[in-house]
Amino acid sequence: MRIQLIKPLLIILFCSTPLQATEITRGVMLSNSCAACHGTDGKSPGAIPSIYRKSPEFISQALLDFREGRRPATVMGRHASGYSDEEIQMIADYFSSLP
Amino acid sequence: MINTGRRKFIKLIGSSSALIAASGLLSTCSKSPDKARVVIVGGGFGGSTCAKYLQRFDSNLDITLVEASARYITCPFSNTVISGMQQMDSITHDYSAHKNRGIKVIHAMAQDVDPAGKKVILDNGDVLAYDRLVLAPGIDFKWEDVEGMNKDDAETIPHAWKGGAQTILLRKQLTSMPNGGVVIIAAPENPFRCPPGPYERISLIAHYLRQHKPKSKILVLDAKDSFSKQALFKQAWGKLYPGMIEWIGGSNGGRVDEIDVVSRTLYTESGDTHKGDVVNFIPPQKSGDLAHRAGLTNADGWCFVNQRTFESQTHEGIYVIGDACIAGKMPKSGFAANSQGKVCAAAIVTSLSGTDLPDPSYVNTCYSLVSPDYGISVAAVYRFNQEDGIYKSGGGVSPLDADASYRAQEARYARGWYDSITQDSFG
User: Fold this and answer.
1) What ipTM goes with this model?
2) Looking at domain A24-96, does it have CATH number 1.10.760.10?
């Protein structure tokens, strides 16, 4: 009975709210750039390493080390040069928190 | 018993008539008549990526992708097919993943756009109404600027600058030419699709010739005085293919004035005559035809857009992405188109929902193979501001002093790059 009563209201809420699967944040905008090489959601199908659900510490440290030239790289040192500390953290948070 | 919170909650609904009205919304909702309709024309890297990310951002959208071909053959890595390293099926993709995720895919040609009526007219007679339209028409060639050659002559002198039959034709001509023959590659003036592409092609054709026809030469007639990753390419040519490649820049006689198709002869602005056994003339370029018919192009044949959203500066509600648009400092590449497709998808979803588009970030990474185990790359991150449009905020090219293991690693990553970007765009 309770479920029957509440159902129409849930439908109203459901219909009036955009069914946006992803909230489009700065972190989303930054991280989607990575997917072209690292695969959609960071799941790489080939030779480029996957970054899907790696820990935020791992991703942020790797990007900082690439940017500062502390970690050997091909393109990643060049890419990391384009991101601030704050942006690197957003990227790390995005890939680590994917479902 | 209904607790107090629930009681208030239900009070909001009020009477049973409100419940009936709400129930009515159930059927309304399930039919989804108010789904925003987004039509994307062009199923290359830009259009396919945009369709996929629109769906990921908002699964409630009504998304239609219009693409003439059932299969898409990529320009990236087509040079590996031309040189015999890979087969056509390795660069051929379809739209099954898009169909499986609920995107409607129509294989037809978009003939015209009605910006006022918000409609796209297809050659199969269908008319698609849209709330937002994305055009990703790629490039067409400025045959009108080429003296002595027209579109049909590409059957004799292939451009191979769109993946498909032209790729196979150039491959066949190379395998048929004599050992000791001359391959002429004519590269266009900027801007054009894939700035490092002609030079990767030169490299991989040299790789093929060195193995199979080592007495042959490659003559490059370039409309430009410099080109993408020039120092890296020239260094690699000297190491891998010494004496095989001669590059002539625009000011030194590289600009082609006229072509005699039958004799495969090129006449340059400087008055020189060059005859090839195989001629690969890459014509000057402009936006794909549909952008012109939709009235979106400037005098040079490209589309002005708001570089933060990719919405046309000519028609509201129409977005142009990929090679066809002017995107500030970004090159015309499949990778750039992929990046723009995502930004455009976010711009459309936020505009439909009335929310703010966060500051976009764009990226480009282009690998070039100089031989199967020698890769070089250019990488860049881009941002937007009102003064400059899209500007470069970081990046660079492979170092000149790298060792063989670095080049081999970049060759390996070039293949990984292809696997990833095609999966991200079409998979």
Assistant:
1) 0.89
2) yes
